[in-house]
Amino acid sequence: MISVIVPIYNVEKYLYNSVESVRKQTYENLEIILVDDGSPDHCGHIADEFSKKDKRIKVIHKQNGGLSDARNAGLKIAAGTYVFFFDSDDYIDSELISKAYEAYIRTNADLVCFNYISYDENTYEESRTSFNIKNYKNKEANLVIAKYLKYQLGYCVWNKLYRMDIIRKYKIQFEDNSKVFSEDICFNLYYISFCSEIQVIGEHLYYYLIRESSIMGRNRAKIKLNQFIQISKCYETYLTQLETPNEMLFYQEIIFSLLMQMQLQRVERNDRVNWVNAIEDRKYFNKKSNGAIYHIDRWIDVFGFFTGLKQWLKTVEYYYGENGKAWIYALRWLIFELKRE
């Protein structure tokens, strides 16, 4: 059985078509969990009506706690072997579950990812997001850093099918999205830390609605350095609390650097220093960014020598591009390290 968790809040305009696209899946052994997150409209009633005509549907009514809380409520009761997180204003291809599940059957994958189509509610324009069809088998650092954080898998949770045994074993859940923006990234960092094989399939199976009233719509154009620093802190805290030490702790500075670059790349080069200077926790930022510069060996360990060196130099440029002395210092340090080797 595969569990489909659908958080619901203020989406009655879209809910019927969205849930119907789940009910019409060619793969029928589903558990569909509709989580009414204290929605002020008629979503709760619509969910109850769905449960009356489809025995696979379970409905949770709860006080409003946000997207993460709703997904976590669904995870608590999910009984499936796999779990799919679906947003209640989107819709999916009728073969999404079957094709994702078939990929698990064909491989020993710990995670299956697929492509998606974004469409704008106002302009009706569509754009396709296509990842390379690939079976990634590598050490954890490469999957998290060189694949996930380099956008080879997609940052969201709704273009992936997860194994419930991994989620349960490592107590993975969504961070409070009132404190951590992009809680999807946190969840995926946690999960992929325990993956040894990831399968990407080529079909475009998910249809993502772009609407200005959504959480992502309201925040799409904003630069969120402080929020992404919080992601880094959450990830590090999660790893340190594990019973068995995880290799990803060794690469925290690199992960931090890539999280910062995800935001800084959206800013004009000459304006980056202003955004960096406005960071609230400068002590944490300086510690992690300096660590990313000092540990060139870890960049090379993940990406190989030439690509690792390129990624390291890119990090220097992002943090110190306006400071000539820092460039000189970094290059001197590189020469010293190479001579020592």
Your description of this structure?
- The chain is globular.
- It has 341 residues and is α/β, with parallel strands linked by helices.
- The longest helix has 17 residues, at 324-340.
- The chain folds into 2 domains: 2-219, Spore Coat Polysaccharide Biosynthesis Protein SpsA, Chain A, CATH 3.90.550.10; 225-340, no CATH class.
- It is 48% helix and 18% strand.
- α2 (43-53) links the parallel β2 (30-37) and β3 (57-62).
Jot down its keywords.
341 residues; alpha/beta; Spore Coat Polysaccharide Biosynthesis Protein SpsA, Chain A; 2 domains; ten-stranded mixed sheet; 10 strands; globular
Secondary-structure blueprint of this entry?
Layout: E1 2-8, H1 12-23, E2 30-37, H2 43-53, E3 57-62, H3 67-77, E4 82-85, E5 91-92, H4 96-106, E6 111-120, E7 126-129, E8 134-137, H5 140-148, E9 160-163, H6 164-169, H7 183-192, E10 197-210, H8 215-219, H9 225-240, H10 252-264, H11 272-277, H12 282-294, H13 296-303, H14 305-320, H15 324-340
Parallel strand pairs: 1-2, 1-4, 2-3, 6-10
Antiparallel strand pairs: 4-9, 5-10, 6-7, 6-9, 8-10
